[in-house]
Every structure is written in C-alpha cells, then in structure tokens.
C-alpha cells in the first residue's frame, strides 16, 4: 500500500512539475515576444505546430490502433489446433459457436488461399518483422535528428521517405555495425514472441514521431498554404517554379508520413494474423479468413495508393538528379525513368482501386482475385527492371557513346536555372583589357580611391585593439567590420601618412574605416569575482567602439584612431577632431545587445551597473532603455526563475518594482528566435548613426544611443529545379531582408530588401506585421547597407563554373575558373572578397564595392574580376569584368611569387623573421584604377609574445615594377616617379611572360 501511494504521489508530482515547466516556458516566451513586438509571429508558429502535432498524431494513432484492434478481434484463437488435411466443412464448424472447444481439431481452409507450412511461414514472418525493425530504425533516426535540432529551425531538410533505396541504405548500415545488427535481429525476434504488446507500443511511438515530423516542418506547411508565383517555369514539366519550392516539399512530407503509417499498419496487421493460433509452434498457418482478407485488401489498397503517389512524386524529383553529367534530369532520366515512373504510378493506382473496390464490395468468390496477386508479382518485378536495369542499359548503350549530343539540351537547362537561382543571370559581364598606361596624373585624378586603399586588415587591427583599446580584461573586440562614413573634416596625425595631400570635398569626405565594438566578455572576469550579482546585476553591458581609417598609420606603425578610448567625461569616447564627432555620433555608447552578450541580466535593481572604468575607480549607471521584461511582481519572478532555472531571482532582495530582465541579448539568437525561417549572415556589423534626427520614427527612440547592428538575412531553398546545389546544401538564395537591431534598446526591425523574391513575399503574407519596406529604413542607416559577403562568396563559387553558358564549353570544363591563393602571414590561403572604394571602368565616380579576382583553373594569371555594388540606387548590381585570354595579366599568386623571390625584399622579410618577431604579409589587394590594375600588399611586424602588430612596409606592384616602401605614398612615388624615389623604396623590374 505504501509503495502504491508513493508511486501515485511521484506521478502526480512529476505531472505537476512538467505542467509548471510548460506554463513557465510558454509564459516567458509570450512576455519576450510581446517585449520585442512580434507576438503574432510566435502565436502563429505555436498554433500551427500544435495543430499539426495533434492532428497528425491523433490520425496516426487512431488509424493504427483501430486496425490493430480489428486484427486482434479477427485473428485465430490460440486454442486452435491445425491439421493440414481436413475437409472444407471443418471451416464451417470453426465459424460456429462451438469453435472455441480446445479438444476440437480444426483446419479452417480458406477458398483461394492455401495454408502456409513452416518453410514458407517462417521466412515470411521473419521478413515482415525485420521490415518492422528497419522502419523503427528509419523513423527513429529521424526522431533523434529532430529531437537534437532547435524547435524553431525552419531549414531542416525533408528526411528520405521509406523507399527501396532507403531500405538498402539501412541494410548496409546495419550490416556494417555488429551492435546495430544484433539490436535489429533482437527486436525482430521480440516482435515474434510478443507481437500484441510490441506492435501496439510501436504504433504509439510512430504516431508521436509522425506528429514530430510535421511539427518540425511547420514552415513548409505554412508556405504551402501561402504560395507566391515565381512567374517562371521549368522546362521538363512546364510548371511554375513555385510548385517545387512551396508544394512539392509538402507532398514529400505527406508521403513520408502516410507511407510509414500505411506500411506499418499493413505489416503489423499481417503479422498479427500470421502469428495467431500459435502458427509458428504448430508449424503451419491455416490461411487468411475472408474477413482477414477483406481487412488486408483495404489496408493494402491504401498502401498501394501511397506507392502510386510516391512514384508520381519521383517524376518531379528527377529535376534534382545527380546521375548525369549535369545537375537535374538528363537524357536517361527523361527518356527512361520518367515514363517508367509514370507507368508504375498509373498501374499502382489501378491495383489500389481494385483492392479498395473489393474491400467495399466484397465477393467471397471472384475470378480476378488470383490475377491480382499475379499482377502484384509482375509489378514487383517491374520495379527493379524499370528503375535500375533499363536506365543502366540506356546510359551505357545510347548516352555514353554520344554523350554531348544527348545531354546538350539538359546541360543548357542546368546552366540557365542555376544562374537564375543564384541570381547570376543579373550579372553585367563586360570585357576589361588593362592597358598598362596608368600615370601619376591618373593617380591624382583617382585620389579618393588611393586614399581608401586598405592597408589595415581585420586581424592585425583586432590584435592591436586588444592591446591598446580593451581598457579592462572584461572588455573584448570580437570583430572589426569594414564600412564607409562621410566625414566633415579629415583627421590629422603628426605621424607620416601613406597618402598624398588629402582634400576635403564639399559635403564631407568619404572614408573607408574599420569599426569595432567594445563588448563585455563576462568569461574574462576574474574567477573569484564571478558571482551571481556580478554576472546578472553589475556586469551588464559593453561600452563604446573604435573607428580606424583603413589607410593611415600613427606613430610607431600603429593604427590611427578616429574614435577610441573611454574618456571618462560627458564626451564618453575620444575623437580625433571636432569634425569626426560631428560626422560619427557618439552619445552614450552602451552595448546591451551584441555579438558575445550571452548572459541574461537584470536592470533597475538596487545594485548599480558598471558603466565604464575611470582611472582607478568605476562609473556606474542604471539602464533606462526600452528593452527588458518587468519582473517586479512576485509571480513573474517565480515564472522567470523557473524558466531560467535560476532560483536566486526568487531569493534576492535586490529587485525593485521596476526591475526588468533582459533576455536573448545575443543579436544572432535574438533575430533567429523571431524569424527562424530566415538564414542569417555570419557577420553582423556595427553602425553609428542618428536614426531619428527628426524625432518622428517610433521604431527608433530618440535618445543618446546611436549604435545599431545591421544583419543581412537570406531566403534559401534546396528545391529549385535544375539548379546545381552549392556547398552549403542550397540551390536558391536571395538577400531579401535587412535586419536592424538597436544595441541599447534591443529593438528589432526587419526590412524587405528584395521585393522580387517570392519566398519573402509568402512570409510577408504569413506574418503581415513583421516586415517593412526598405524605404522605411532611416536614410542614415540605409547609407551603411552593403552587399553581404556570405552571399557574394556563394555566388562567386557558383560563378567559377556557371559563367560558361555554352553547353559544349561547360561539358568540357575548358574554361573553369578558380579563386586564387595569396600569402597571408607565411601560409597560402584563398583570396577572400574585400570591400573597396574605387571607380569602376566607364563609371565617372568612386563607390563602395565588394571585389574578388579569378584565375583560370590550375593557372595563376588573372582571367576576370567580380564586383558587387553597395551604394544608393546601384545597390545589389553585379559586374563581371573578363580579361583577354591572349594577354598575361598577373594574378595574386604571381605577384606574391615576385615579392618573395626578390632578393632584397625577401632578405628584409627574413631579417624580421628572426627570433622574437615575425613578418606578416597582409591581404594582397587587386585594385582597378582607370583601365589598369594596381597591386598593394601591407607588411606587418609583430612580436611572437604579446603580439602588437605594426605596419612597417607597403608593397606596390604595377606592370613590370615592384616597390616596397615605408608608406603607400612613397611606394606610389617609386612606381610613377622613379626619379624622386625615396631611398627606402625598393624597385625591381618584373620580366614579361606568358600565362602558364
């Protein structure tokens, strides 16, 4: 009695704890989404997922349990003794009321079906039980992968359906792992011993898994219900591409669910019938009764109907084939597999209709019943012949002897649709023939380009920042980002600068800078000071940022700073001039939301927050921003204490009625929680701007904080027909959304940057209050948007192959490109895309672009360069400049080789690389100026201990000359004014040669 009451109390306590945990999670999430203003997004997702799980799990459980219950009622009793040689009248006695007498020997011989002896019965039940085990393994793997995935992850790929190819993969996987093989056979044997209990338990588990599959794929269901037209069709079926993006994934999900449901139901019911009457013990199964046959006909009809749907969907999945010379359906797929899948689907529909007709209009005697079984046998024989044998024969005998001619139209499809999917068809391709006629006058004419040549790379600048600007150990600069600002005056420095005379243009001068946020890294707080109060109440935010011009050098070869330090007075940060302070708003640059703010904090408490250090003391502050959720009341404290599993929140006496908790302060986690259906760029960047000058924009509070994070967001898919999949597993991408996060208030705004994208149009209809027009973004922020590097990398990777639009050239891969290598430090690595302020050929003004050069495959000379524009009305325009193939244009690897082979330069680098220091060769920049190319590489010197990189030399290469000097100005003089070259410059001629 005691144990029973203890068990009941435990169950009640466990249920209450789970309910409390669920309520606290739901309540905390509702409060958080209400705080950020996206409660509708959360509720739509919550309701959609809840409905999907309940509906799918309920339908699955009802179907399986009802059919298993019917099978239990119709199966033979265990008391039935079976003898194979009995008269037909015995079956009639079996159906009478006296059939249960244990001393009666019966043989229920069924018309049309003979009894199964042990030599047929045993393999049949073993195969069915093993098939059940394979299904458990397949759907179990799906459940485990989904269980370990984030609940809101909308980019999960659709798992493979339980088709013959998947079964073969599972068999190979099981055979290769002994423990897996033993577990599978052990499970199959257990099903044979305890069929009733295990089959019912598996049915319940499967129902929950089916519900989980649809639960996790809520985004695909919503997109199916809200499709948007692409206004473009694919060439094989002539269907709008929206069918493949929005509809096909939903039908594949439906197939995954119903195939598992109907197949398991059929197998489980068949096993119950076959194992009834102790058939294995007695060595014979008496045959299926008419009611059992009718039951199996109905379930088999539904299963065959799903097989027909599977083959019908396989027709459309041919556009993702990887078996041919190009991505998508090739000659063999179209001429062999497509008609084969169509035929198999139509025949399966016919068989399913007959089985279902027989189920509803059962006739004890039917002359066609035996033909159906023969038809099923022929159908099973046709599956491998049409799906494997015939395509193999066609490929080897028809396609391969004349592959180019056969595959040419399909190659053309792959090229065209891949270029569409990655927006490569929007590239404006032009010829570019460097003339080598650049003069000193051209250099002066392109003064803005020269003044913005980047000499400081991100890595050495961050190393220097960490030494000079972190102020305290608990501050950290996690990243530095390239941006451009219009400055009213030019900062000056007493140190030599690498530029020519710099003029101030009307309205300000455009400068390329590196901006880095000084965030708070709580893990760097001394271990003895890592208390709960410090973690959540005192160390709450970072403070300030640095801004450095990319091309100037301060005393000692260190970076020059436009914005730096923490001033300790009302000015907050130190600026290099009044003009800089007027151009870059400073305010009170507190960073409560950033890239490494991974802790939740409480503000408005009795404990004052650390603001910034000032000399030997600290300055404290209280947060007055709009972020956070009030937890002053007792019940809210309990709610969030349970949600965060932090019971100090209940016990502390430091809270006040106005106390707030700030959650999800990491900007990536913050925007991912709001819009999990978007993919986000890996590099958020900080912007300092007055976003509400006129005090008229409610999305941007007019206060003393001017720091914002801009994050690029993408809509992606892996379902674009004929589009070759990139390394990221996607074959469609658009930079459709720009996200702005207030670093102080935590306010998040989503702006549609590409209204032509149908996917973001669908999401806009699903969540109508989430997205704003890009024109609604404040101009001061819009001036800082830039073409994202992640998208540019994906496009540039695809462009290496898909710039070839001629099918024959593509087939031969005779003009494939590659991204060149450069020496960084002492190691070779691929050139990364980089931002420049430069003038494009035929464009009369300088602009901010993202740039990447190309070389031919397995060669080192330049063949082209790819650029993306970022300014104003030209934002997003892509340009490709192709060099003449008959002329040598030096590539980065050739220039690096010339630098490292020069006896004087290499000797100087070797001297620096002595014990205690090392020379770092920075990014080699290829800079287009007029109709020529200029190569610039900075060289840094750093100590092996306590690294503090300094810029010591600049290498400039142009045509047949290479110069290394202390400054860029001197190096350019060495190139274009050799008669006045400073003594420190080194000039070496470069021999002319041919492309290798």
TrEMBL record:
InterPro entries: UPF0182 (IPR005372). It is found in: Cell membrane. The chain crosses the membrane at residues 51-70, 120-147, 167-190, 197-219, 256-275, 296-314, 334-357, 378-398. It is a multi-pass membrane protein. Its main location: membrane. Pfam families: UPF0182. Belongs to the UPF0182 family. This is UPF0182 protein H6G94_10145. It comes from Nostoc punctiforme FACHB-252.
